[in-house]
Amino acid sequence: MSTAVFAQKKDVLNFSMAFMTFLTIFVWYTIGQRFTTSADGISEAIYNMNWYDADVSTRKDLLIILTMSQKSLVMETRLFGQISQVALAKDFKRIYVFYNWIVTVSTQM
Can you give the three-state secondary structure of the chain, one letter per residue? Predict the structure, then answer.
């Protein structure tokens, strides 16, 4: 086997792994964005209610829901939409571990 064929196979493998990783991230963030959009609608509906005229117990419950539905720090990207910083850091860590595993396995073969 020549060096060119071996290098070409590794490039195809790297490209396919990167493409599958980005496709997976795109699918999961698309699903997550749908949940985020639904949660935003719920929090706006609760805020627009007449909650300040309700009894104390209901006010406390609705205020808890409102505080839990506050928006977190997110970044806006063209490909994935809105991505939170924590989720992005976790995914990059997973990708790094996965690619290191691929490199380790491919060098042992």
Answer: CCHHHHHHHHHHHHHHHHHHHHHHHHHHHHHHHHHHHHHHHHHHHHHCCCHHHCCHHHHHHHHHHHHHCCCCCEEEECCCEEEEHHHHHHHHHHHHHHHHHHHHHHHHC
User: So what's the pLDDT on residue 71?
Assistant: 66
**Residue range 3-59, pLDDT digits in tens:** 445 445 667 777 777 788 888 888 888 888 788 777 778 777 877 888 778 889 988
Read off φ and ψ for residue 25, nearest 5 degrees.
-60, -40
Are residues 52 and 59 in contact, defined by beta-carbon separation less than 8 angstroms? Answer: yes
